[in-house]
User: What shape does this take?
Amino acid sequence: MGRYTDSKCRLCRREGVKLFLKGDRCYSDKCALSRRPYAPGQHGRFRRRATQFAIHLREKQKAKRIYGVREGQFRRYVEMAKKRKGVTGEALLRILERRLDNVVYRAGFAYSRDQARQLVTHGHFLVNGRHLNVPSYLTKEGDIIEVRPQSKDKLRELIKGAAQRRPLPSWLNRDLEALRIQMASEPSVEDLDQSIETSLIVEFYSR
Assistant: This one.
Protein backbone atom coordinates (compact mmCIF):
# COMPACT_ATOMS: atom_id res chain seq x y z
CA MET A 1 0.00 0.00 0.00
CA GLY A 2 1.38 3.42 -0.98
CA ARG A 3 2.09 6.05 1.63
CA TYR A 4 2.51 9.80 1.11
CA THR A 5 6.06 10.76 2.09
CA ASP A 6 6.38 14.26 0.61
CA SER A 7 5.93 17.51 2.53
CA LYS A 8 2.49 17.78 4.18
CA CYS A 9 2.58 21.54 3.68
CA ARG A 10 2.33 20.95 -0.07
CA LEU A 11 -1.08 19.38 0.50
CA CYS A 12 -2.39 22.51 2.24
CA ARG A 13 -1.03 24.69 -0.56
CA ARG A 14 -2.61 22.42 -3.19
CA GLU A 15 -6.05 22.69 -1.57
CA GLY A 16 -5.64 26.40 -0.77
CA VAL A 17 -6.75 26.01 2.87
CA LYS A 18 -5.12 24.99 6.14
CA LEU A 19 -5.62 21.27 6.73
CA PHE A 20 -3.76 21.38 10.07
CA LEU A 21 -1.56 18.42 9.18
CA LYS A 22 1.58 19.68 10.97
CA GLY A 23 0.17 20.32 14.42
CA ASP A 24 1.72 23.27 16.23
CA ARG A 25 3.47 24.53 13.09
CA CYS A 26 0.10 25.29 11.48
CA TYR A 27 -0.61 27.89 14.18
CA SER A 28 2.75 29.64 13.81
CA ASP A 29 4.31 32.06 11.33
CA LYS A 30 6.16 29.11 9.78
CA CYS A 31 2.97 27.88 8.09
CA ALA A 32 3.83 27.33 4.41
CA LEU A 33 0.36 28.41 3.24
CA SER A 34 0.79 31.79 4.96
CA ARG A 35 4.19 32.28 3.36
CA ARG A 36 3.30 30.97 -0.11
CA PRO A 37 -0.48 31.13 -0.64
CA TYR A 38 -0.45 29.45 -4.03
CA ALA A 39 -0.30 25.90 -5.35
CA PRO A 40 3.06 24.09 -5.29
CA GLY A 41 5.05 23.42 -8.43
CA GLN A 42 6.56 25.41 -11.27
CA HIS A 43 3.19 26.75 -12.46
CA GLY A 44 1.58 27.10 -9.03
CA ARG A 45 1.26 30.87 -9.25
CA PHE A 46 -0.82 30.67 -12.42
CA ARG A 47 -4.47 29.84 -11.85
CA ARG A 48 -6.47 28.00 -14.47
CA ARG A 49 -10.23 27.86 -14.72
CA ALA A 50 -11.26 24.67 -12.92
CA THR A 51 -13.58 22.23 -14.67
CA GLN A 52 -16.57 20.76 -12.82
CA PHE A 53 -14.67 17.49 -12.48
CA ALA A 54 -11.70 19.31 -10.94
CA ILE A 55 -13.95 21.12 -8.44
CA HIS A 56 -15.49 17.83 -7.29
CA LEU A 57 -12.10 16.09 -7.20
CA ARG A 58 -10.45 18.82 -5.13
CA GLU A 59 -13.23 18.70 -2.51
CA LYS A 60 -12.92 14.93 -2.25
CA GLN A 61 -9.14 15.16 -1.95
CA LYS A 62 -9.41 17.87 0.71
CA ALA A 63 -11.68 15.71 2.89
CA LYS A 64 -9.42 12.67 2.46
CA ARG A 65 -6.35 14.65 3.45
CA ILE A 66 -7.98 16.32 6.45
CA TYR A 67 -8.91 12.96 7.96
CA GLY A 68 -5.91 11.03 6.63
CA VAL A 69 -7.94 8.37 4.86
CA ARG A 70 -6.91 6.45 1.74
CA GLU A 71 -9.07 6.19 -1.37
CA GLY A 72 -10.42 2.68 -0.84
CA GLN A 73 -11.41 3.34 2.74
CA PHE A 74 -12.91 6.72 1.89
CA ARG A 75 -15.03 5.13 -0.83
CA ARG A 76 -16.32 2.56 1.68
CA TYR A 77 -17.28 5.35 4.06
CA VAL A 78 -19.26 7.03 1.26
CA GLU A 79 -21.11 3.76 0.60
CA MET A 80 -21.84 3.42 4.33
CA ALA A 81 -23.18 7.00 4.40
CA LYS A 82 -25.49 6.34 1.45
CA LYS A 83 -27.21 3.54 3.38
CA ARG A 84 -28.01 5.80 6.34
CA LYS A 85 -31.09 7.93 6.78
CA GLY A 86 -30.83 11.67 6.27
CA VAL A 87 -28.36 13.73 4.28
CA THR A 88 -25.59 11.54 2.86
CA GLY A 89 -22.90 14.23 3.19
CA GLU A 90 -23.63 14.79 6.88
CA ALA A 91 -23.65 11.03 7.49
CA LEU A 92 -20.23 10.80 5.82
CA LEU A 93 -18.73 13.47 8.08
CA ARG A 94 -20.24 11.82 11.16
CA ILE A 95 -18.56 8.54 10.22
CA LEU A 96 -15.20 10.28 9.72
CA GLU A 97 -15.56 12.14 13.02
CA ARG A 98 -16.17 8.87 14.87
CA ARG A 99 -12.81 7.38 13.86
CA LEU A 100 -10.72 6.68 16.95
CA ASP A 101 -7.74 8.73 15.75
CA ASN A 102 -10.02 11.69 15.03
CA VAL A 103 -11.68 11.45 18.47
CA VAL A 104 -8.25 11.51 20.13
CA TYR A 105 -7.32 14.58 18.05
CA ARG A 106 -10.63 16.41 18.55
CA ALA A 107 -10.46 15.86 22.30
CA GLY A 108 -7.11 17.67 22.35
CA PHE A 109 -4.99 14.63 23.16
CA ALA A 110 -2.72 15.22 20.12
CA TYR A 111 -1.56 18.19 18.05
CA SER A 112 -2.56 16.63 14.72
CA ARG A 113 -4.51 13.67 13.38
CA ASP A 114 -1.24 12.09 12.24
CA GLN A 115 0.11 12.28 15.76
CA ALA A 116 -3.17 10.90 17.14
CA ARG A 117 -2.98 8.02 14.66
CA GLN A 118 0.55 7.25 15.76
CA LEU A 119 -0.38 7.28 19.45
CA VAL A 120 -3.27 4.89 18.80
CA THR A 121 -1.15 2.59 16.63
CA HIS A 122 1.53 2.44 19.32
CA GLY A 123 -1.04 1.17 21.78
CA HIS A 124 -1.30 4.09 24.20
CA PHE A 125 -5.11 3.97 24.49
CA LEU A 126 -7.80 1.75 25.95
CA VAL A 127 -11.38 1.73 24.63
CA ASN A 128 -13.91 0.62 27.24
CA GLY A 129 -11.02 -0.89 29.20
CA ARG A 130 -9.79 -2.93 26.23
CA HIS A 131 -6.46 -2.37 24.51
CA LEU A 132 -7.10 -1.13 20.97
CA ASN A 133 -4.55 0.02 18.38
CA VAL A 134 -6.77 0.44 15.29
CA PRO A 135 -7.04 4.13 14.27
CA SER A 136 -10.03 3.46 11.98
CA TYR A 137 -12.15 1.96 14.78
CA LEU A 138 -15.53 3.73 14.76
CA THR A 139 -16.45 4.84 18.24
CA LYS A 140 -20.06 4.94 19.39
CA GLU A 141 -22.09 6.81 21.97
CA GLY A 142 -21.02 5.92 25.50
CA ASP A 143 -17.54 4.70 24.58
CA ILE A 144 -14.76 5.64 27.01
CA ILE A 145 -11.29 6.19 25.60
CA GLU A 146 -8.46 6.57 28.11
CA VAL A 147 -4.69 6.60 28.15
CA ARG A 148 -3.44 3.30 29.47
CA PRO A 149 -1.81 3.52 32.94
CA GLN A 150 1.70 2.74 31.63
CA SER A 151 1.57 5.71 29.22
CA LYS A 152 0.09 8.43 31.43
CA ASP A 153 3.36 9.90 32.66
CA LYS A 154 4.79 9.86 29.14
CA LEU A 155 1.82 11.60 27.49
CA ARG A 156 0.58 13.98 30.20
CA GLU A 157 2.65 17.00 29.11
CA LEU A 158 1.90 16.44 25.43
CA ILE A 159 -1.84 16.29 26.10
CA LYS A 160 -1.72 19.32 28.38
CA GLY A 161 -0.20 21.40 25.56
CA ALA A 162 -2.40 20.01 22.76
CA ALA A 163 -5.64 20.50 24.73
CA GLN A 164 -5.09 24.27 24.75
CA ARG A 165 -5.08 24.45 20.95
CA ARG A 166 -8.75 23.79 20.16
CA PRO A 167 -12.20 23.89 21.81
CA LEU A 168 -13.81 20.64 22.87
CA PRO A 169 -16.75 19.65 20.62
CA SER A 170 -20.12 19.27 22.34
CA TRP A 171 -20.34 15.53 21.60
CA LEU A 172 -17.22 14.72 23.64
CA ASN A 173 -16.45 14.90 27.35
CA ARG A 174 -12.89 14.79 28.63
CA ASP A 175 -11.10 14.55 31.95
CA LEU A 176 -7.58 15.94 31.61
CA GLU A 177 -6.66 14.81 35.10
CA ALA A 178 -7.60 11.18 34.47
CA LEU A 179 -6.67 11.46 30.74
CA ARG A 180 -10.05 10.10 29.76
CA ILE A 181 -12.45 10.86 26.89
CA GLN A 182 -16.12 9.90 26.72
CA MET A 183 -18.21 10.01 23.58
CA ALA A 184 -21.33 11.66 24.98
CA SER A 185 -23.36 11.49 21.77
CA GLU A 186 -23.16 11.26 18.00
CA PRO A 187 -21.43 14.27 16.39
CA SER A 188 -23.97 17.05 15.85
CA VAL A 189 -24.39 18.99 12.60
CA GLU A 190 -23.03 22.13 14.29
CA ASP A 191 -19.79 20.34 15.17
CA LEU A 192 -19.13 19.00 11.67
CA ASP A 193 -16.48 20.62 9.48
CA GLN A 194 -18.45 23.25 7.59
CA SER A 195 -15.52 23.99 5.26
CA ILE A 196 -16.10 20.67 3.45
CA GLU A 197 -18.81 20.80 0.78
CA THR A 198 -20.01 17.24 1.13
CA SER A 199 -22.53 17.55 -1.71
CA LEU A 200 -19.61 17.80 -4.15
CA ILE A 201 -18.10 14.61 -2.72
CA VAL A 202 -21.38 12.69 -3.00
CA GLU A 203 -21.80 13.91 -6.58
CA PHE A 204 -18.23 12.83 -7.40
CA TYR A 205 -18.96 9.23 -6.40
CA SER A 206 -22.35 9.28 -8.11
CA ARG A 207 -20.89 9.77 -11.57
